[in-house]
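Q: Given only this backbone (632 positions), what sequence would you predict?
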């Protein structure tokens, strides 16, 4: 059996682990349940991928986001590690083949969404797998205290009881004290070993600016700090407008949001990662799973909904441990808009039932049908069809998702896939009987080989058309004909958003909505918004310490590099610190002694000087309430 370090060097080419990774991997291999809290960019995936490769068997990874699953599977496959993902939108046949390969093949990693765990087919196949590790990514989703609660995550504990995997690790980048305890409670893992890396980022400077002309400030920042950048905004319209403004000012910029067609989004992302585009102006649809180490600035144009979300997004700067900047811009109106936005999210139970009924009518679902059925979903067309207001409907859909009734996926670029339904002799008979289809079948065999008979293979219609010497539209038509003739199963690429019904369809009047929980979640959301407002409004406390305190990490040390700390340094440089220290050197002094001696110094400046000397541990406050020189 290879050691963890040998696995790391072989597949990732790294000479050593980052802090805490080795300890986490060791605990996992020792079959101790583990909860790992590592900041964004801290290398969470290594903590389950390496131990899984150290032992025989397959690792099941539970993840909430299709884009994240697909990205990690692709990264593993690039390293010649066999990995697959199962998610909503896949055909039953595709799921069946993937599960068979996990039971009988050499697959090392199976990525699944949490709602998949409760299906009978998955549970039965999982019992046949040689599972060596269950990894729960984005574990904060299990907690109703968290900012991204996903009810299907509550199914994980039951799955663990039924399957009894030998090793369990839960991982997250951000968890408050309540969330941490909730994760352990919901997973019934109170005896788990908890590893928590500090939420402080020594190389990351946090700054907040209250100003009216945000675009000019962005331009000023980007001209002062060279290198890659992300500018986060809330609306799709803003992505285009700000990108155009920066482009007009000779800064290489592009924009990104979930409404951009998938192939175009992928191209935009690839150019930014390669450094061909310097700045990406984007909604929060951008960034998850992207490992670009040299981002120098992350700028938030609008206020985020929670400090967890801000910390995650800001943390995409400076992953290479070099100096980086996280900047939040805001106006007074933004504060009121955040409060209003949070209040608007609290739609009534009656309206939630109305939207659910509209969904059932839209997709023509009978009561009791369609559990785990997935459909393409044009949200705006749906709202227009039933004359529903867009904002309230958006929040009602999210509440239905919070209650575990539906899942809403951001659109992503799904590649085209194909598998032969017939064996090779039968395909040959079809070619003889259908001469017009013979060329396209030969091209498929030439490009993709015998794997087409055992598994779904990613195909590119452009390559097929090129070898046929025909248009891509002609290639689409021929592949569709083969699909209709049941020679192949052809799944054409799509980047249309999807909705999945996680339960059989309910009668809307009997929809199992937990009204008490809905109200409680509203209160939690409001408190999270207030934490953001307090963060941007406080000009006295170190930004990093405020964030650390939010995540229940107590520290007495300022970061020294945020806007608040730097302003303190600039301010205290004008205060005669040495004179204050020299005066105390002659003997311990009371506050009154100091005030009487430094009559020419403003009292606030005197207090700031005393605080700075105490922070620097040059003086301390005695039990007799005197200021004295600190012992060597």
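A: Predicted residues:
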């Amino acid at each position: 059996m290879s050691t963890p370090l040998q696995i790391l060097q072989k597949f990732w080419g790294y000479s050593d682990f980052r802090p805490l990774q080795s300890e986490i991997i060791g605990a996992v291999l020792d079959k101790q349940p583990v909860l790992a809290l590592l900041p964004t960019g801290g290398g969470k995936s290594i903590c389950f991928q390496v131990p899984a490769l150290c032992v025989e068997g397959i690792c099941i990874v539970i993840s909430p986001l299709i884009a994240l699953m697909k990205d990690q599977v692709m990264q593993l496959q690039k390293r010649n590690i066999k990995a697959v993902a199962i998610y909503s939108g896949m055909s039953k046949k595709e799921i069946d083949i993937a599960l068979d390969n996990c039971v009988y093949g050499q697959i090392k990693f199976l990525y699944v969404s949490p709602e998949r765990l409760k299906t009978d087919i998955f549970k039965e196949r999982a019992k046949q797998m040689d599972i060596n590790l269950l990894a729960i990514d984005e574990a904060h989703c299990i907690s109703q205290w968290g900012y991204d609660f996903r009810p299907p995550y509550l199914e994980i504990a039951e799955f663990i009881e039924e399957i009894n995997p030998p090793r369990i690790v839960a991982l997250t980048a951000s968890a408050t004290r309540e969330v941490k305890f909730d994760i352990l409670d919901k997973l019934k893992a109170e005896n788990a070993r908890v590893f928590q890396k500090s939420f402080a980022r020594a190389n990351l400077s946090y700054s907040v600016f209250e100003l009216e002309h945000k675009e000019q400030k962005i331009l000023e920042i980007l001209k002062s700090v060279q290198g890659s950048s992300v500018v986060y905004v809330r609306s799709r319209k803003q992505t285009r407008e700000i990108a155009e403004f920066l482009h007009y000012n000779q800064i290489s910029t592009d924009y990104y949001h979930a409404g951009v067609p998938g192939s175009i989004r992928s191209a935009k992302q690839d150019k930014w990662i390669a450094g061909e585009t310097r700045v990406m102006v984007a909604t929060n649809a951008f960034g998850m799973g992207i490992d670009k180490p040299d981002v120098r600035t992350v700028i938030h144009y609008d206020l985020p909904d929670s400090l967890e979300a801000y910390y995650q997004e800001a943390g995409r700067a400076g992953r290479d441990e070099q100096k980086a900047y996280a900047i939040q811009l805001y106006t007074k109106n933004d504060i009121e808009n955040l409060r209003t936005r949070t209040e608007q999210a609290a739609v009534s139970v009656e309206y939630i039932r109305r939207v659910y009924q509209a969904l059932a009518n839209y997709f023509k679902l009978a009561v009791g049908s369609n559990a785990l059925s997935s459909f393409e979903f044009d949200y705006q067309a749906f709202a227009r069809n039933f004359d529903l207001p867009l904002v309230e409907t958006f929040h009602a859909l999210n509440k239905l998702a919070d209650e575990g009734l539906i899942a809403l996926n951001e659109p992503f670029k799904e590649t085209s896939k194909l598998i032969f339904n017939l064996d090779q002799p039968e395909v040959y008979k079809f070619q003889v009987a259908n001469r017009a289809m013979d060329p396209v079948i030969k091209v498929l065999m030439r490009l993709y080989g015998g794997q087409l008979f055992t598994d779904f293979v990613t195909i590119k219609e452009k390559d097929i058309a090129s070898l046929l010497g025909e248009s891509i539209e002609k290639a689409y038509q021929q592949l569709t004909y083969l699909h209709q003739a049941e020679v192949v199963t052809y799944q054409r690429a799509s980047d249309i958003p999807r909705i999945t019904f996680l339960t059989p369809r309910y009668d809307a009047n009997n929809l199992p909505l937990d009204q008490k929980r809905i109200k409680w979640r509203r209160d939690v959301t409001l408190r999270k918004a207030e934490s953001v407002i307090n963060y941007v409004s406080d000009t006295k406390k170190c930004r990093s310490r405020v964030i650390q305190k939010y995540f229940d990490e107590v520290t007495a040390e300022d970061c020294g590099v945020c806007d608040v700390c730097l302003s303190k340094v600039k301010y205290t440089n004008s205060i005669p610190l040495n004179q204050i220290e020299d005066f105390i050197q002659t003997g311990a002094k009371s506050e009154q002694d100091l005030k009487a001696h430094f009559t020419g110094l403003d009292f606030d400046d005197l207090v700031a000087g005393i605080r700075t000397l105490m922070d620097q541990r040059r003086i301390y406050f005695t039990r007799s309430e005197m200021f004295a020189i600190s012992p060597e």
